[in-house]
Specification:
By secondary structure, this protein is mainly alpha-helical. Helix content is about 70%, strand content about 5%.
Length: about 400
């Protein structure tokens, strides 16, 4: 249904006719004498672009669902590749081909710092599940921060030694651009690892909210949009903005309740390559809420089963609708500053990876902060039950007995 709505919204009005009207032997013309086919060509091209966009969206959506079903160990490498693609698209914006040919070491250093950052961030975030699956990694992890710092120092020294007279300003500008990109893209993007380890619920919910908000902003703006929202993005309308907020709120409330049925989504990942399984927290257990008599009399329903986490989902819907779009506005400003239509052409009908993920970066950062400091404060700051059990299993027998003894006393 969503695909049909999107294609219908994008189709020029004159194309929303039966095929019989297109089979006329006469060639219609505009009042100025120009063949109508020539006028309709850009509109047909626009419809074809939207069709390509819809097909690609379906492919990405089902591919994403396949990754969710496969588990964290398959999602994490994809997140890393997405960050690398975004890094490449943003870094090349400020590059000047003539100067880059004179400075081959600059491009190598950019990819060197990217590799050190993304691999190091992923290793830190995935530490506990990886050690649980491969205990021998503990020795390597003991030296991880020293190794990471050493790699950073090596890159920094090489950059300073590569400075060339006549290119100082360009090289310093590129290095500053590199640092900004690493912080905004790889830094914030790495927080997604912590979100998915807490439970795929916290990875899937915010992503789906952003996607639905984007779809409904387009649909509502196309059909009801009258008032421009922002000069930076003239096609964005107030009606689309508000309509998307309403529809995203409905989606988040329903979808969060639906996901509570699956342990694989609400349980944390304790060990890599092992299915998440646990007794769901009380936040994910639906409890009946009585409806007012007047509402019950009209609907015939006395109570609704609502999980407490569904109320938290409303906060995610609000952020995805009101704040996350500003990530897209920021990206629009960046493209306008460099006179770009898209960041790339990696995804047919969508542009580059950054064009699709611009809102997801800030949404992922918000999810991490909210779960760690708001949700965790409400549910308790202690490790989750599966994590506690796994820690106890890995302790020496004497230490384990001591912990259980002290816990019994408490």
């Amino acid at each position: 249904v969503t695909v049909s709505v999107l294609y219908w919204c994008a189709m020029p009005p004159k194309q929303r006719v039966s095929n019989s009207s297109l089979s006329s032997p006469t060639t219609p013309k505009t009042p100025g004498g120009t063949p109508a086919a020539a006028v309709e060509e850009p509109k047909k091209r626009s419809a074809n672009e939207v069709l390509a966009r819809v097909v690609t969206t379906l492919f990405m959506a089902y591919g994403f669902l396949g990754l969710i079903a496969a588990g964290v160990e398959y999602i994490a490498p994809v997140v890393l590749l997405i960050k690398a693609a975004m890094f490449f698209e943003i870094v090349r914006i400020s590059q000047k081909e003539r100067k880059e040919r004179q400075l081959p070491s600059m491009r190598l250093l950019q990819w060197y710092f990217l590799a050190v950052t993304v691999v190091g961030a992923a290793a830190v975030a995935l530490r506990n599940p990886l050690i649980a699956a491969f205990p021998r990694l503990q020795v390597w992890y003991n030296s991880l921060f020293i190794i990471s710092f050493g790699l950073y120092v090596i890159g920094f020294v090489i950059f300073v030694l590569s400075l060339r007279r006549g290119y100082y300003r360009y090289q310093m500008a590129q290095f500053s651009w590199l640092a900004m990109t690493l912080v905004f893209i790889t830094g914030q993007g790495s927080l997604q690892y912590a979100n998915m380890l807490r439970g795929l619920f916290w990875f899937l919910l915010p992503i789906s909210c952003v996607v639905h908000n984007d779809i409904w902003a387009y649909a509502c703006g196309k059909n009801f949009g009258r008032t421009s929202l922002l000069r930076l993005s003239p096609k964005k309308t107030v009606e689309g903005f508000v309509g998307a907020w309403i529809m995203t709120t409905i989606w988040a409330f329903w979808f969060s309740g639906y996901m509570c049925r699956f342990k694989g989504l609400v349980c944390p990942t304790v060990k890599m390559f092992e299915r998440a399984d646990c007794i769901p927290e009380a936040m994910f257990v639906a409890v009946p809420h009585m409806l007012p008599r007047e509402v019950a009399a009209v609907t015939g329903v006395d109570a609704l089963n609502i999980a407490p986490v569904q109320l938290h989902a409303l906060v995610f819907a609000a952020f995805a609708s009101l704040i996350a779009p500003f990530g897209g506005f920021f990206a629009s400003g960046l493209k306008r500053a460099f006179k770009l239509k898209d960041f790339g052409d990696l995804i047919p009908g969508h542009g580059g990876m950054t064009d699709r993920m611009d809102c997801q970066i800030i949404m992922g950062a918000f999810t991490y902060v909210y779960v760690q400091f708001v949700y965790a404060a409400e549910t308790g700051t202690c490790p989750l039950v599966p994590q506690l059990v796994d820690c106890l299993r890995n302790l020496p027998p004497e230490t384990r007995q001591l912990v259980l003894s002290e816990a019994t006393k408490a």
